[in-house]
Amino acid sequence: MDRLVFAFVISALLAGCAQTYTWTKPSASSSDFYRSSSYCEALSTGATPMDYSSNSSSTSYHSGSVTNNSGNTGYYSGTTTTHQNNTGQAMGNAVKAIRRQGIYNDCMRGEGWVPQNEGSVYASMSQNVQADQANVFLRAEPSFGAEKLADASGQFLEVIEESDQWIRVRMGDREGFVHRSKIQGH
């Protein structure tokens, strides 16, 4: 029983190591997400097959009579219990689950998706930035009075050109300007 509790605790800790994300991609639809996610799920599942057998035990009940060489008869009864312990397999599965999640995450990044909580890290690596979560608009000209082309709140924006106050960006198929103060980390 102590081994089982130990294996459960270790499995729970290892499972917590596999980070999952909320994925974002500028101008992508939900069907684009599900297409990428399905592909990456299939890729990660095929790469690390798992054993789904579980710990089990079985008990057999025995009773009967026995006669010895002298003709004396006796009776017996009892049980036999067989345990199948898959603790090692459970640990292997936990490691494979972490590996699967890593393969899935790498695949999603390769498909162009970005973890929502990694916006600032992603921005510095790929010349993309993330707009603040509220009241951010893509504008036609570098002015607060210019026409609002789209709501850019919380979106990842591709940087085209930077100046002191305004950043020229691309959001999907549109280009425009966002004030530097409306960009996370700027």
Written description of the protein model:
With 186 residues, the chain is of the alpha+beta class. The protein has 2 domains: 2-54 and 85-115, no CATH class; 127-182, SH3 Domains (SH3 type barrels), CATH 2.30.30. The chain is 34% helix and 31% strand. It is built from 4 helices and 10 strands; from the N terminus they run αβαββαβαββββββ. The chain has helices spanning 2-15, 30-47, 87-110, 119-126; strands spanning 23-24, 56-67, 73-84, 114-115, 128-130, 137-139, 148-151, 156-162, 166-171, 174-179. The strands form 4 sheets. Strands 5-8-9-10 form a 4-stranded antiparallel beta sheet. The chain is rod-shaped and about 110 Å long. The two termini are 55 Å apart. Mean pLDDT is 74; it is low at 1-15 and 120-126.
SSE layout and pairing:
Layout: H1 2-15, E1 23-24, H2 30-47, E2 56-67, E3 73-84, H3 87-110, E4 114-115, H4 119-126, E5 128-130, E6 137-139, E7 148-151, E8 156-162, E9 166-171, E10 174-179
Antiparallel strand pairs: 1-4, 2-3, 5-8, 6-7, 8-9, 9-10
Helix pairs in contact: 1-3, 2-3
